[in-house]
Design goal:
Its cofactor is pyridoxal 5'-phosphate. With 873 residues, the protein is an alpha/beta fold. The radius of gyration is 30 Å and the shape is globular.
């Protein structure tokens, strides 16, 4: 029989054990071994049954056991020590507090998903795990972040397989009272709410749940409240589910409701108000509209002035390298949810629409693009690896017409991973024996080292013994999960004896685990099944492969890829050497990364924005075998991994490309990877393999840390955004908005009319200097409104300047009788070979973050270019 109502009965802890509740409610336990060890000692069997979740553990421990622990002086001493350690962590000065004055008092960080721990399943993949690692690293560094997200009642789906290998989705109901979260309450003890206005006079209300991630509060909005109609109650039902209107309401709640939740939290707790707002992907882009509405209401600013003030303090991070990965909504749907009869009635709907419409060549004019809005509402933007920054500048270059992609104001901060979460305890202990536990913890949490040279002193035998131990643990984990999976698929006990011999702790183990969109090419390894079988079953140098990953519930193509892989892995000839594990999540990942020898990644380049799973593997001494995409393109060196050659030239047939790249993968495994793993030196150890493991830890380890990433965000994006935010008071914001309006109105009259140079011939010597003299018309603008530049450098076969050097030119006197200005300056010929130059005029203002910010540029006419003569050679 099913219960007609469900509620949670909380245990009453004896007074000496009350601090256990505080420890369970701060998610630092998810990356702090001593706290987890303490909870495990409460009841090891129930700890395992609760999947390492302290809240579930405390809800299931027998009262007699709690009474026993309340009298156990040794346990109480451990409890006191762990509580004191947490208090020191929460209140002591950390990296951020030691920085010079001027950093933001607080930063609000918005994301549609957060992967903190498997006990709080509010994530689907890399975006959420990255957001969780960002919060944890910010906590370790003392960065005053406030996280903002949604609390999904079903989270993301759980995955199982049918008998024939087809993905099945399950959406278990999550009771917030059984999660490590608490309700944010008003001073009178009632729940705090935020509300959105919906068309037709309806309202969407949401409670605010608080998850404490170390020092960082994470606010999560939940629409499943009784005051809402059934449709509104389901807005936060599941992550990435529902149709367009459902997604739009989720993103309005995240962005607009999220800002209101932050204001409520700061009012109730006294937390400093954020000076910087960071949106992790475009899903939260509506936060900028809410802040514009605040300024229009509170400071009586007009829309354009409020827009400038909001942009100054906003950071936007894009994570997708393909337009299809961005949320886009029909213009009419967005218009329906804003304006006088809906949300933000004080803002003209056309102004809202203008922020997100694809009004550029190649755009679809009837679609509202969340990433486009995010870029227009943020003065600072970044991709998540060096290559992804380049791809993003090209993808969004239409927003900055007239500028080459390399000048588009989108920088990059390469992702990192939170080492205390992802490094296996055995790996940490090995490092702690070398440098001490506290130093090892600081190195992993705070970052800052260029190299981890202490790794060089770890004996080869210890490295190899550790790798073998981790591989053996993975083998046991795989067998346990595989047995459970086959039972779900309908197999009986008598059919499953073969699972006891699946995988071998002495065989080279390859891991491949990630989401299953087509570009990640889950089944590339199956391209030549005979060659793969030879690799798996080689008599002297076999390999074994552990695969995991979820396809989106609506992606039947992805599900077919999963089924194809599963059916191959079900083949009795190879099932001892290749397995597919369903329901890939954080708990599985934490076993998988350390236990693999090779982490495989074979996306279509350059469609992997970053790809942080290989970073987590590297921190555990696993070597990467990957296409040069994302972070691997940036940091690959043959000392610590292998690069799969790509056939990504223009016009390459997709099938041919897969054939070529799969063949390259097989070649690498056959000729370079497996021989190195199995060859033995004088001591009977694979000396060259161990050295690659050592180089991975020494040289790659410090780079892939989330601590390094968050420090870069602070120094390169948050700090400048805070300075810009403070500079844009009401009067200054009006001044900047008025100036931009005047510049845009006058820009059609800005022209370059004539260019003179002192060069008399088409050749010149290296190091010589030319004198440039440029005549420009500025229309209604003056020299203070613009910068006239000379750009020079080598030119390609189509006369395009590459690696341009920019030199500002100076006005020579005032305007002539016809209103023309003369600008002059030197042009140094600092490179040999074909050399060219051009000139241009850009808007200039002290409050612009980039000369390209307005997307305005004036250059020589085509006639003037053709009349300028030959290039310098």
């Amino acid at each position: 029989m099913k219960a007609i109502r469900r509620f949670t009965v909380r245990p009453v802890l004896p007074e000496p054990l009350r601090p256990l509740s505080d420890l369970a409610r701060n998610l630092r336990w998810s990356w702090h071994p001593e706290t987890r060890d303490l909870f495990q000692s409460v009841d090891p069997e129930r700890w395992a049954a609760s999947d390492g979740d302290p809240v579930r553990l405390l809800g299931s421990v027998r009262p007699a056991r709690l009474a026993e622990l309340a009298e156990d002086r040794r346990f109480l001493r451990r409890l006191t020590a762990v509580c004191d350690d947490l208090n020191d962590y929460l209140t002591g000065e950390r990296w951020y507090q030691a920085q010079p004055d001027g950093l933001p008092a607080a930063i609000a960080y918005f994301s549609p998903e957060f992967g903190i721990t498997a006990a709080l399943p509010q994530y689907s993949g890399g975006l959420g795990i990255l957001a969780g690692d960002h919060l944890k690293a910010a906590s370790d560094l003392g960065v005053p972040l406030i996280g903002v997200g949604l609390l999904y009642r079903h989270g993301y789906f759980r995955q199982s397989l049918s008998r024939d290998g087809w993905q099945q989705e399950h959406y278990p109901v999550l009771d917030p009272n059984e999660l490590p979260v608490s309700l944010l309450k008003e001073e009178d003890g009632s729940p705090a709410y935020v509300a959105l206005a919906l068309p037709g006079g309806r309202r969407l209300r949401a409670r605010i749940w608080l998850a404490q991630v170390g020092r960082v509060p994470l606010l999560m909005l939940d629409s499943d409240v009784e005051d809402n109609d059934p449709g509104e109650r389901g807005v936060t039902d599941r992550l990435y589910g529902g149709g367009s209107e459902h997604r739009l309401l989720q993103e309005m709640l995240l962005g607009i409701g999220g800002v209101r939740a932050v204001r409520t939290y700061c009012r109730l707790t006294g937390h400093p108000a954020p000076e910087v707002f960071h949106t992790n992907e475009g899903h939260a882009g509506f936060l900028g509209l809410e802040r514009i509405a605040e300024l229009c209401d509170e400071q009586r600013l007009d829309f354009d002035s409020a827009l400038e003030a909001v942009r100054a303090g906003t950071v936007f991070t894009t994570h997708t390298p393909v337009p299809a990965g961005i949320d886009r909504f029909d213009r009419e749907l967005v218009a329906h949810h804003f304006g006088t009869d809906a949300e933000l009635p004080g803002i003209d709907v056309e102004r809202v629409l203008r922020l997100g419409m694809e009004t550029y060549p190649g755009g679809e004019p009837n679609l509202f693009n969340m990433a486009v809005m995010g870029l227009r509402l943020a003065q600072r933007a970044n991709g998540v690896s060096l290559l992804h920054g380049q791809v993003s500048r090209e993808m969004f270059s239409g927003l900055w017409p007239g500028f080459d992609p390399e000048e588009v104001p989108i920088t990059s901060v390469t992702n990192g991973v939170h080492a205390p979460t992802w490094v296996a305890p055995e790996v940490f202990r090995l490092g702690a024996r070398q440098v001490g536990a506290q130093r090892a913890e600081d190195v992993l949490s705070l970052g800052g080292s260029e190299r981890w040279d202490a790794v060089a002193d770890i004996p080869d035998q210890e490295v190899w013994d550790l790798r073998r131990d981790l591989r053996e643990q993975l083998v046991q984990e795989v067998r346990s999960r595989l047995r459970a999976s086959w039972r779900q698929r309908g197999a009986g006990t008598a059919e499953l004896g073969w699972i006891d011999s699946v995988l071998d702790p002495d065989v080279l183990t390859i891991g491949f685990a990630r989401r299953v969109p087509s570009y990640k090419r889950l089944t590339l390894m199956l391209r030549d099944r005979d060659r793969l079988m030879e690799l798996l079953l080689h008599p002297e140098r076999p390999v074994q492969i552990v695969v995991a990953g979820k396809a989106h519930p609506a992606d039947d193509g992805g599900k077919r890829l999963v089924q194809e892989l599963v059916r191959f892995a079900d083949d009795p000839r190879v099932r001892g050497r290749i397995v597919f594990l369903p329901n890939y999540d954080m708990a599985m990942a934490q076993k998988l990364y350390p236990g693999c020898d090779i982490w495989l990644n074979n996306p279509l380049r350059p469609l992997e924005a970053c790809g942080t799973s290989g970073m987590k593997a590297a921190l555990n001494g696993c070597l990467n075998l990957s296409v040069l995409d994302g972070w691997w393109d940036e940091w690959f060196q043959p000392d610590f991994g292998w690069a799969i050659p790509t056939a990504d030239g223009a016009g390459t047939d997709p099938d041919h490309r897969d054939d070529v790249e799969a063949a390259a993968l097989y070649d690498l495994l056959e000729q370079r990877v497996t021989p190195r793993f199995y060859e033995r030196g004088r001591q009977g150890l694979p000396d060259r393999w161990i050295e690659m493991v050592r180089q991975t830890l020494m040289r790659l380890g410090p780079k892939v840390l989330a601590g390094r990433m968050v420090r870069e965000y602070v120094e390169r994006l948050y700090a400048p955004a805070a300075v810009a935010h403070r500079a844009l008071d009401a009067d200054t914001a009006r001044e900047l908005a008025d100036w931009k309006e005047r510049v845009r109105a006058s820009w059609q009259q800005v022209t370059v009319e004539h260019v003179e140079t002192s060069a008399a011939a088409a050749t010149a010597e290296l190091g010589s200097t030319l004198a440039l003299r440029v005549h420009v018309r500025l229309g209604g603008l003056g020299p203070d409104d613009v910068e006239v530049q000379a750009l020079s450098g080598r030119v390609d076969s189509e006369d395009r300047i590459t690696e341009a050097v920019t030199v500002p030119l100076k006005p020579a006197g005032g305007a002539d009788q016809e209103g023309r200005w003369v600008y002059e300056g030197p042009l140094t010929l600092d490179r040999t070979g074909p050399f060219g130059y051009t000139v241009r005029v850009l808007p200039a203002h002290r409050l612009l973050a980039s000369a390209a910010e307005l997307g305005l540029v004036a250059g020589p006419s085509q006639e003037l270019v053709e009349a300028a003569g030959v290039l310098m050679r």
